[in-house]
Amino acid sequence: MKTVEKVVNPVRRAGEQSPGKIYDEKLKVRARREWRGVKDTFYDYTRWLYLMSVLGRFIIVPRNVKGFFRYRWMMSYLFVPHGMDKFTVGLRDEALRIAHTSFNFVIADVTQAIANCFRGDRRVGNDKAYSDKCVITDENSMVTFMMGFDKEKVHTILREVPTMFASNIFHQFNVMHYLDVAQQNGIPGDVCPMPEAEAGISIDDDFCVLGCCAVQNNTTCDGSLMGNGIIAKRLEREYGIPTFQLATPLRHKEPDVMDYAANEIKKAISFVEEHTGEKWDWDMYFAAAKRVNYATKCRIAQMEINSTPYPQFFGAAFSLYNDTNYMGNSGRDPQFLKIDRKLLDLAERGYKAKRMYAKEYRHRAIVWGVQPQYVIDMLYWLVQCWGVMPLTDMLSVINTDMIAEEDTPENREQAYRDMAMLNMEMIMRNHTHGGFKVLVDDLWELCEQMNADIVMMWEHMSCKALTGMHGQFEEQARERGIHIMWVSHDLCDPRVFTRQAIRDQVNSYMRTVMREEPLDPSLEIIPDNEAY
Amino acid sequence: MCKCKLFNVLLKVLLRLLAVVLGFFVVTFTVYFFNLDMKATALLAPWLEKWYDHLEHNQYL
């Protein structure tokens, strides 16, 4: 079997050595925050103050208070600091700053998204003039077709992000109510709980209602297509919001799908123009394209650092930031440039100083499959408990090609193809669809490129897209001498797999197959199944 | 004499400011470190759930 050189941290960690002491089974939150030494505890405290100020500024607006008491999912946002703590377990120095810089920015972005939803919502803010310039899009939709619209004039509302996806990060039980509502109304329980919860929110009438039109995307699976149908029906028939179906080819590596995909983007743009009354602006588009390329360059640089023995930007914060920047932003907001630069500076500084975030790194892992790592602090736990460093995850392995960024007549035509390419290769489509090459072959190339000896394979119980490939992965991992560690879960339904049931699969593998003892035994069993 | 008075006033203001900053730090740091913010929120959550349960929704498929 393939092995990697063990890297031992020569420096004793500042503050407490084991984060296992901060969990208490009698509490649904942590007993206390981690002591990280004076400097890093003070830094973490100042970031906590910042988060409190973000939440405080949000809640002093009367319409946001009204929205808070109207929508059940808003309760999750009371637990934002708890969610942030999940992504900083055991971190010090640059990694702590990277996690805060990236995820604090995501939180501020989501807070703004909620404020925008409430402003236009017919039940809360009811700002009709604002709502008439809003375009609703899916949670799993690339917003490339909005890159050429002035964001001050046309507002892109990714309505499902704050309602379902982000709220579930902070409160693991948050979507159970909506899953129950969907199933009480006859939706089968064997589809992915993410689109099923979104369908449940629509059935329960718990989405904000705003916008002059909506654009839906055939995302990745049976659940998502089913959910889109239910949501579109309510949007169009009950609320009179016209909904465009952006039908994106799934076999995105086949060149003959490109003309069709580019044409779909053209139609989506025309639809937005027709309903908002605003015109597509090529200057706006190419400025956004430059920013998309910059974000891509920064992400490639971060992956290169993670290919060395001293990875710096890893874990759920890495994929959540990429997700927000690549898919939710798509170059439209210049603020991301500053954050990209800052994150890269921090990672370079950490790499030069050979910073490590556990006593030793015994293994280097690629995290593959459909992942629930936002809901639990799994990837940070993996490093702290077993010394397995997660180098990158499937959702962060996205486009590495540069798109056309100069405004020329040829590039205007190329731009539609670029937008189509980005849309086809969005995070949940890039590897789960597109054939054997992108799901299986790409994984082994990545293992080679990043010098990984383990694949932590998330096996999502309800995801039919990946289940069929189980045997192929097993067979090919054996041929290549790569350890493959299957970890089953049911995404955002903790009733099927609890947090400890998920971790126990890793514990069993590491003890029985790898014959290893944990780096930090206090973390092997954590009493956080009932925690938010 | 006048300079001395001004100095005393400035010193008092500075000391008060320092006391306020220190007081703010002690209170907020205690809340932060012992996770009192999230513990209080966890106590509030069951009441909020009851509130959301009692709201009438137009369930429709």
Give a quick summary of the entry.
With 532 residues, chain A is of the alpha/beta class.
Rg of chain A, Å, rounded: 22 Å
Average residue-wise pLDDT of chain B: 94
DSSP summary, beta strand count of chain A = 10
Q: What is the helix fraction of residues of chain B, given as a range?
A: over 70%
Structural class of chain B: mainly alpha
Query: How many alpha or pi helices of chain B?
Result: 2
The main β sheet of chain B shows up as: none
Q: How many strands, which pairing sense, and closed or not: the largest β-sheet of chain A?
A: 4 strands, parallel
Helix and strand run of chain A? EHHHHHEEHHHEHEHHHHEEHEHHEHHEH
- Form type of chain A: globular
What fraction of the residues of chain A are assigned to beta strands by DSSP? 5-15%
Mean pLDDT reading of chain A: 94
What is the topological layout?
The complex is a heterodimer of chains A (about 525) and B (about 60).
Chain A lengths: L6 E2 L29 H22 L2 H9 L9 H7 L6 H28 L7 H4 L2 E4 L17 E4 L1 H11 L5 H9 L8 H11 L9 E5 L4 H17 L4 E4 L11 H19 L5 H25 L9 H14 L5 H18 L7 E2 L1 E6 L9 H9 L1 E6 L15 H16 L11 H14 L4 E7 L3 H4 L2 H11 L2 E7 L9 H15 L19
Parallel strand pairs in A: 2-3, 2-4, 4-5, 7-8, 7-9, 9-10
Antiparallel strand pairs in A: 1-6
Helix pairs in contact in A: 1-4, 4-6, 4-12, 4-13, 6-8, 7-8, 8-9, 10-15, 11-13
Chain B lengths: L1 H32 L2 H19 L7
Tell me what the structure shows.
- The complex is a heterodimer of chains A (532) and B (61).
- With 532 residues, chain A is of the alpha/beta class.
- Helix content of chain A is 49%, strand content 9%.
- In chain A, the strands form three sheets. Chain A has a four-stranded parallel sheet with strand order 3-2-4-5, with helices on both faces.
- In chain A, helix 1 packs parallel to helix 4 (93-120).
- Chain A is globular, with a radius of gyration of 22 Å.
- The two termini of chain A are 39 Å apart.
- Helices cover 84% and strands 0% of the residues of chain B.
- Chain B is elongated, with a radius of gyration of 24 Å.
- The termini of chain B are far apart.
- The A-B interface holds A 27-33, 35, 41, 45, 48-49, 52, 69-70, 72, 75, 78-79, 81-82, 181, 185-186, 203-206, 230, 234, 238, 532 and B 28-29, 32-35, 37-39, 41-42, 44-45, 48-49, 51-52, 55, 57-61.
